[in-house]
Amino acid sequence: MIRSIMSFTKLSLSFWGYALGTAARLLNIASSKTVAQKPQIWHGKSASYKYLRMWGSPAYVKRLVGDKLDSRSSLCRFIRYPKETAGYYFYDPSEQKVFVSRMQCSWKEDFQRIPDVMNCSLRNQVRHLSRM
């Protein structure tokens, strides 16, 4: 699962630990055949999936800046959900830093088109295999 998560981006392999944390989070909230209502059992209420984002997706994150003329946001990559607080872990390639942000962020929508391309590719592979 980690390999497939990391294949959507060009982030370094040094981020595999963050991909592992994201994969664990996704597996923990997903229901399975044996436990159909996993989030309801643990928390007593149904889970909300609105906060989920694609690993490595770009987002403009508002940063605390001292100078009024500096840019107030920077283009970062989402890499993990924090355990201890609400928000997201982001990687800022310009500063080469990982940080947690609860600030307002603007997600770039063009990154969300990648799964559609992958689904199309998967359909083509299935068609190819069915012809054999």
From TrEMBL:
Q: Which Pfam families match?
A: SH3_retrovirus (PF25597)
Residues of the Retroviral polymerase SH3-like domain: 58-102
User: Any idea what this protein is called?
Assistant: Retroviral polymerase SH3-like domain-containing protein
Q: Which organism is it from?
A: Sesamum radiatum
Kindly list the organism's lineage: Eukaryota, Viridiplantae, Streptophyta, Embryophyta, Tracheophyta
